[in-house]
Amino acid sequence: QVLVVESGGGLVQPGGSLRLSCVVSGITFRLYAMNWYRQAPGKQREMVARIRSAGITNYADSVKGRFTISRDNTKNTMYLQMNNLQPGDTAVYFCNADESVARTWGWGQGTQVTVSS
């Protein structure tokens, strides 16, 4: 059974920073490309950052230059460093593999990020 657990969210003022963590158990983590997704109220879930098993990264244009994705395969853990947060970044953040794999794994609870003054 695959278990995905996100943590690290919270309330932060515009311009602030947060670091999200994601621990995945039940799979050989290092073999999978992993993604951070987010879903804002009333909007569809969107992918914001992706990291391949070899460490190559991709970002949505909306977060490029502000967010950094990383992973530690020895700890089955992925991170998202979020800097210069803006109100538009408010959402529940989820981590998972690519969508086709995520359908099999299931989704975690996510972690709420709220950016507000």
Helix run count: 1
Structural class of the secondary structure composition? mainly beta
Number of strands: 10
Low-confidence stretches: none
Per DSSP, what share of the residues sits in E-state strands of 2 or more residues? Answer: over 45%
Output the strand order for the largest sheet: 2-10-9-4-5-6
Cα shape: globular
Using only C-alpha atoms, the radius of gyration works out to 13 Å
Strand count, sense and barrel status of the largest sheet are: 6 strands, mixed
Please bin the fraction of helical residues. Answer: under 10%
Average pLDDT across residues?
Answer: 96
Order of helices and strands: EEEEEEEEEHE
How far apart, in Å, are the first and last alpha carbons? 40 Å
Polypeptide structure, described:
By secondary structure, the chain is mostly beta strands. It has one helix at residues 99-105; strands at 3-7, 10-12, 18-25, 34-39, 46-51, 57-59, 67-72, 77-82, 91-96, 111-115. The protein has 1 helix and 10 strands; from the N terminus they run E-E-E-E-E-E-E-E-E-H-E.
